[in-house]
Amino acid sequence: MKIKNLLLTALVVLATAVGIVWAADHIDAPAVTATASDITDYYAFQSPENADNLVFVANLQGLLDPAATASAKFDEQVMVEFNIDNTGDAVEDLVIQAVFRDGKVQVYGPVAPSESGLMSQVETDGGLVEAEITQYNETAKIGSGKGMKVFAGPRDDPFFFDFAQYSEIIAGNATSFNEPGADTFAGTNVLSVVVEVPKSMLGNAAALNTWVESKRKI
Question: Do residues 42 and 81 make contact, with C-beta atoms less than 8 angstroms apart?
């Protein structure tokens, strides 16, 4: 299956030993806003339960109120691709790909991609780990295999941002954020894709460049 780049949200450097990195981009261009290809946040961090693992999280379709969350669905025409550069050249050496079929998330990789950049194909030779997609208000359904764990389903939006105060700062009416401020995204949900993977599957570099894309089938 050929797919093309739909949205690139962020490129971040991840120290494999410690810390958390994140990037946020709520509300994109009209063609993708409020769809399951709109990436709102990207997180990459060491597993708090296993220091030998890294966790990658892509959140999609932000600003879902509770009434809309139950009917929100992952798009079977869209692939979420986690990219990992372990040589420092800002070109993906490994990919982890999540596609959605018949109520399940299917995750392939980490595996070297057949091609890099805007075009991709599903790397089915990268091994498969899958899980049932968790529905709204259900207990999380987590799939496992190859030492990996995967999850896909709705979650409370974890990103904290005081948009009203930000607007006041931009307008010149304030000079700083309040402590703690008001959470603009409180009470809203996202569709999350979570993949936990052993560090040993990502190469032996001291640091990784990692970014996430959503790509639509053509």
Answer: no
